[in-house]
Amino acid sequence: MNLMDSSETVKGKILDKNKEYTDTMEKYSSIWRNKFWPRDRNKWHYSVIQRSQKLIPFLNPKTSSKLKPHTVVLQGPAGVGKTTLAKNLMLEWTEDNLKKTFKYAFYLSCKELNQMGPCTCAELISKDCPELQDAILEVLDQSQRILIIIDGFDELRFPPGALIRDICGDWKQQKPVPILLSSLLTRKMFPRATLLITTRPWALRQLWLLMQQPLLIEMEGFLEMDRKEYFLKHFQDEDQALRAFDLMRSNTALFSMGSAPMVCWIVCTCLKLQMENGEDPTPTCQTTTSLFLRFVCSQFMPVPDSWRGWCLQAPVKAVCLLATEGVWTQTSVFDGEDLKRLGVKESELGPFLDKNILQKSKDCEGCYSFIHLSVQQFFAAMFYVLGSEEEEDREIHKGNIGDVQKLLSKEERLKNPILTQVGYFLFGLSNEKRARELETTFGCRVSTEVEQELLRWKVKSDENKPFSVMSMKDVFHSLYESQEKEFVKDAMAHFKEVSLRLKNETDVVHASFCLKHCQNLEKMSLKVEKGIFLENDTSLESGSRVERSRRDYRFLPLWVDLCSVVSSNENLSILDVSHSFLSDTSVRILCEQMARVACNLQKVVIKNVSPVEAYRDFCLAVIGKRTLTHLILEGSVHSEKMLLLLREALRHTKCNLQYLRLGSCLATTEEWDNLFSALEINQSLTCLNLTASELSGEDVKLLCMALKHPRCSLQILSLENCHLTEASCKDLSSALIINQKLTHLSLAKNELGDGGVRLLCEGLSYPDCKLQTLVLWGCSITTLCCQDLASALINNNSLESLDLGQNILGQSGVTLLFEALKQKNGFLQKLRSTFTF
User: Fold this and answer.
1) Prior bond of 281 cis (ω within 30°)
2) Record: fold of 10-218
3) SS3 sequence, 448-487?
């Protein structure tokens, strides 16, 4: 045989192998077509896939080849269709839809790969067609036309740090599968191939360590319109469908889970059965726990003599053990080895396979999985509440499984976010009524110790500690799931301060439920994110305004419930509303609670709040509020009538306000006059802070007239960064001479200059000046006025603190001041200066 004949023979063999590989893929295509979601396989599932596929650049023929990334990461929560999309791409390849772009396509399921031992990279990618290994050189030679899909990276099992060690570039060398995958991801293998990786969000951190410049695409699953259409199709009765849909939407956490079609199926199945039985489904959607409990228990209706419940004891405990092992090891597929290691018999899984709670894996023979991660998390929570007469049985299986304390620890949840929902379910199952339902259904004793263990954890972890926003949100969510008022009251007894960051309806529901039972609450800080209240959002299109009205109608009662804490909790004395996007109606609701006689607020802080009219409403609410002593209003405030209302508040006979801060307040001279005139009448206000409020010379003149009034009670005045100039200092100086009560004056960050300070020194030098603290930080002072300051220091007998920081005094100026201190007859205790020579 000559060389040419030999070459043709090799090419022929390669073509045969390629055809054999394609035939193999086509053989599996019929299986893959059944990999979509069970039941109701229809246009919605495909529309979700197509919507996401359009975002993948290498599937879009209009995308320039230069702009097509070689690595695409498709991330999303469990059950939104990531695997379905991956398999759909393989189907399209077998149907020649992708052959122009990719000559070879390989599908690697991490669930399956967990069952494989060490192998070569060639063996790995050709596992569905071992004969293709003979043509591996041809495959390698065309690596730029290879598509490798790594599905379910979050399912891959590997020791900590294993992915970044021993990375291999030799396709013939045997390595553990995780090492081979990391070699693909780091481009040590097939550097020119296109990679598509699917994963849940929590595994992105590991992926990011291995890849360079990947394109991240979020797969959203069912959008709201998809969910609504699904409900209409499932129920067929439109009224029932819309009622069920509204119930699901009323629970933000549950509605968020509904991005997974399987969760929509669970909700529809559960609520439809209740409606058909004439039951009220409203309580079922109150919490995620109540929904999943109802779904699970409805699959096993107990008979009168309860024999079925008793025969379910062993199966339910086996399934709970399987679920718990899975959430702790971040595993959702269980093989025969897993069952054997845990002592679980396949026969025990039967009742749950029959009821579609468990399913046989279509990817891996002899493997099982729960129909959705949330169902697995629910059974994992059941593991902790189902008692056992043989407690040693539970000890045997605790190798990978943590106890309740570990389950609820922040450190574990950061490492394994799957545990978070398990914790929520666990609190939900601590409810006595739900515990009885579990006992009735499965015939198992529910532990009475778990509630006390949860309470001990809350007390130990939260008592006398400041709380971060996330920890507060987590605590409230957990306690709300329980729906046990006495339990919540015990848990909240240790909270004196709470900080709320409200992002959605659920946050408000959880917070109001818990705070009603927080009898010792003294301070509440509130931050409302943009998008909750849409009433004042002018950017919305006309079509969206109808939806906005519906949303406000649904949401405002929840806000009323939360705001009622302001007047119902007699110990609440401090309210801080900062960086919040409110609306006219929501502000009015809060102010109504603040204005009630039962409200005992002593300090109110309003910072950077919209709409701007909110400041006016808050001022109106505090008129005549006898308990209020501190009021802070900040954030580019320019609200019509606000200062006029503050004047009325200060002039009210019940006013006990001692501290007033108006930060960044914009007002006319007439409006300032309204406020300053009240200083001549009010006898309680001792501190006025106008930091960053722009004051004209005329405004300062009006203020100084009030300071000179014999009934003015101000002791502390801050005019920091108020755009004061030398012209204002003459009025301030005369006020220092006449006012016998003012002891602290801050003029920091104003361009007073040497001339302005000289004028102030005239007042300071006057024998009757009672000023104790003067702040001239950053006032553009130089050496030229130091002689005047020195003279004032010598003559003033009350000044105790003088701040000259951030001024260029020079060596000679500082020397003058120190010489004055040596001669001083007064009591200066603190002199601060920053100078240059």
Assistant:
1) no
2) Rossmann fold (3.40.50)
3) CHHHHHHHHHHHHHHCCCCCCHHHHHHHHHHHHHHCCHHH
Within 10 angstroms of residue 280's Cβ, the number of other Cβ atoms is 8
pLDDT: is 545 or 249 the higher one? 249
Q: What is the mean pLDDT of the chain?
A: 86
Contact 174, 220 (CB under 8 A): no
| Contact assessment for residue 440 and residue 304, using Cβ atoms and an 8 Å cutoff | no
What average pLDDT does this structure show over 74-94?
88
Residues 6+ apart with CB under 8 A from 96: none
- Sheet of strand 358-360, all strands in order from the earlier edge strand to the far edge: 333-334, 368-370, 358-360
Pick the closest to residue 143 from 172, 91, 102, 181 (CA basis): 102
Determine the Cα angle at 466 with ends 463 and 467, to 5°: 95
Residue 830: pLDDT band with limits 50, 70, 90: confident
Query: What are 635-690's pLDDT values in tens digits?
Result: 877 767 899 999 999 999 999 999 999 999 999 999 999 999 999 999 999 999 99
Quote the pLDDT of residue 140.
76
**How many other CB atoms sit within 10 Å of the CB of residue 297?**
17
Q: Which of 275, 285, 278 is nearest to 241 (CA)?
A: 275
Q: Which CATH architecture has domain 463-601?
A: Alpha-Beta Horseshoe (3.80)
Torsion over CA of 358, 363, 366 and 371, rounded to 10 degrees?
Answer: 0
Question: Which 8-state DSSP code applies to residue 251?
Answer: S
Terminal CA-CA length for the chain: 96
Helix 418-429 to helix 288-298 angle (10° resolution) is 80
**Average pLDDT, integer, range 493-521:** 92
Six token digits for residue 218: 């979020």
DSSP per-residue letters across 103-133: SEEEEEEHHHHTT--SB-HHHHHTTT-GGGG
The H or E element spanning position 502 is: strand 497-502
Q: What is the pLDDT of residue 536?
A: 73
**Right CATH for 686-837 from 2.60.40.420, 2.30.290.10, 3.80.10.10, 3.40.630.30:** 3.80.10.10
Q: At residue 180, does pLDDT exceed 60?
A: yes
Cα–Cα distance measured from residue 164 to residue 703, given in angstroms and rounded to the nearest whole number: 68
